[in-house]
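Thought: the user wants the 3D structure for the chain below. I'll pass the sequence to the structure tool as-is, report back what it returns, then summarize two notable features.
Action: structure_tool
Action Input:
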Amino acid sequence: MAVASAALAALGQQLAPADYTIDIAAYALEATPRRTIKTIAYNRQVPGPLLRLKEGQPVTIDVINQTGNSEVVHWHGLFLPSEVDGAMEEGTPLIPAGGRARYTFTPRPSGFRWYHTHTFAGKDLHKGQYTGQHGFLLIEPRDHPAQYDQEIFLALHDWDGELLSSGDGSMDPVYEVSTINGRVLGFGEPLRVKSGQQVIMHILNSSPSEVHWIALAGHRFKVIALDGNKVPQPRTLSMLRLAPAERVSALVEMNNPGVWVMGEVRKHIMAAGMGIGVEYAGSSGKPRWDQPSELSWDYLPFAAVDPPPPQPASAVAIPLLFESKFAGHGAMDRWAINGKSYPETNSPILTAGQRYRLSFINRSNNDHPVHLHRHSFELRRVPDHPETHGIVKDTLLVEANTQVDVEFTANNPGPTLFHCHQQNHMDAGFMMLFRYA
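Observation:
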């Protein structure tokens, strides 16, 4: 197994040219003909540029911060050293306003990953993940046989939010605009396909806080990977559910010529713009949408059906209890793991090579998309099904008042951040660090 190496260095020295450059700067996103959103973006585009890297092949990426605030870039889903992973809590240096930095690392594992900012936003809904700082990251395997005719990357995002009371005294973001690849339905170019093609769609939910349900009228998705990791049992479904930071890779058979709509299943989110046209060659007319009658999604059908392989040792249990602490009317709730909010949370100590079982016990009325940095985990328990295996992810939606268990091997020493991927929950203390002995 190749070992990732990394360094983050200031660019005040004479250095060889980088493989890629990411420029962080203010950007005016034209989401509709009448709606321009002032935000921050990578290379003046939303999403940022697609980075295609080779598994095991070192890469150098220069980042130039042209904003007035410190920034950092997190390489989500990669097994990297903590000093380059892109979280200041782990020890990755912030890039100062007007500064530059160089990230050098060896990317692994292969699959569909992404990169994004990892800064605090608080009540400023024009910072952090509320901005356009997100981009696609594809780590190509050493052996990469093409099994499709076209590859499409799509990012779901919500914009122009404001904090409103949720009815229980807490404050949650509510958005005015929802987009796919920075455009609302009917504005911008459609996806152009040909009859008979097999298209792979890599779909990312880069929203700062919203879960999204996606369908493609007249077609079905054959899900082959979750969070960039192949599933044991590919399934063909009529819709997808993606929590913030989740990714789905699905094959779509283009066998129904016409002009169709791909978009959010819930009517009020599509009305806010989350949709895109899918146009077959030789077809024209108004895009067609077929409204699904219900929301449908479950992780379990993708699990392996054969018995799990024996583990070298039993997994060490680490229970993680999620609860909120009311902070007062008009204030953001404080979120706690095992009764404590970051940075006062405990730091479980990991032993390299040991297997661990994390029990996510959600005693709140909120769903939480939780993310473990620098590692992947295997789904082992979901509600109403005590044992499962084979589904490997880095982000998982733990629904309100449920328990989900995952297992991972501590094989990447260094401070390791765990947090809810909702920006407002993370900012309100829903984080903790694992540390290696």
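Final Answer: Structure generated. The first helix runs from residue 82 to 85. Helices lie at 82-85, 267-271, 423-427.
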